[in-house]
Amino acid sequence: MLTKWGRAFPGRPEQVAEARHFVAALLEERGCADEGALVVGELAANAVRHSLSGEAGGWFLVVVGFGADFVRIEVIDQGGDGVPAMRDVVPLEEGGRGLMLVAACAKDWGVKTLPHGSSVWADLVGEGA
Fold this sequence. Notes:
By secondary structure, the chain is α+β, with helices and mostly antiparallel strands. The chain is built from 3 helices and 5 strands; from the N terminus they run E-H-H-E-E-H-E-E. The chain has helices at residues 15-27, 33-50, 98-105, and strands spanning 3-10, 59-66, 71-77, 108-114, 117-124. A 5-stranded antiparallel β-sheet has the order 1-2-3-5-4, with helices on one face. Helix 1 (15-27) packs antiparallel against helix 2 (33-50) and helix 2 (33-50) packs antiparallel against helix 3 (98-105). The chain is globular. The model has no long low-confidence stretch (mean pLDDT 88).
């Protein structure tokens, strides 16, 4: 069973940094604060950029769960036209690498489709996790 902490953020780009600070503070003693901040930053940015969470009045939810041997970071958004997925990278394109970074940092990751949105999660291994 996971012990969970969660916080809702307004769906604005500047709130991605707030989400990073929230997760880094929770993971400071787990040895994976940097990875956690990177992962939540990518997932939150995707929520704001690619879902209805980035529309006026939108929001996204960050949930951090502590398991016996892992930490789960989850970002829940308000959905949109597509399902989050890794895509082929175009060499000179600035974007499109977020989920590749998440996959590189995480022990495992995935996407859940929800009735009114989606959840993207990543499991990290950390000291004392």
